[in-house]
Amino acid sequence: MRITLLPDLPDVQRLEAARLYWDAFGGKLAPVLGPEAKALAYLSRVMRRDHCICALDAEERLIGLAGFKSMDGSFAGGTLREMARTYGWFGSRWRAAVLWLLSREVDNHRFLVDGICVARNQRGKGVGTALLQALYAEALVRGYGMIRLDVIDTNWRARALYERLGFVALRTERIGPLRYVFGFAASTTMVRPLPRS
Fold first, then answer.
1. Residue 177 pLDDT
2. pTM for the complete prediction?
């Protein structure tokens, strides 16, 4: 299968990217960003084209994407003002507070992955591996020697893939009462050194 990787999110793919992201992460984000129609509107507006890599098939359909964080922001973070456009001022304040508790870290020493998603009908075909390899290259260009991601305890398939690709668990953190909101109890930080050419 031919996969084309783009270091960008084309405008024509924004809604499809939001759907792909929601399909992968909506299970844990629905209590905060739902209902789905609002979440898709919000995500398609805030996704940063300069903080992701997209995978397209031979017909130029979006089949996967990988976001990352930097000191300038994150792939699907958005601002409080952007969130208020979808959820109103009151709705945006509590949502932003809960999301901040879940993911407020930017790692200055390791390149930080902010979500990898692959279309359901394309899983197991090398799309995830291709996206990770593109993230390795992006990390090296930005001067990092190590890449980091976090995987939740209920996503054992992703963790198995990361372990096969050389990621090692660094630590596992329980999220306490937030488990009742997001539907998982712990997140494991995994890292992988990047080879210098």
1. 79
2. 0.89
Spatial CB neighbours of 97, under 8 Å, sequence gap ≥ 6: none
Based on the structure, what is the number of domains in the chain?
1
DSSP state for residue 70 in the 8-state scheme: B
Domain of residue 112, CATH code: 3.40.630.30
Share of the chain residues as helix, strand and coil, in percent rounded to the nearest 5: 50, 25, 30
Burial of 28 (0-12, 13-18, 19+ CB in 10 A): middle
94-111 pLDDT, tens digit each = 999 888 776 656 566 899
Please name which of 52, 46, 61 lies closest in space to residue 7, comparing C-alpha atoms. 52
* φ and ψ at residue 145, rounded to 5 degrees: -105, -5
What is the residue range of 67's domain?
4-193
Token pair listed for 110: 């390791």
Would the pLDDT of 195 be above 90?
Answer: no
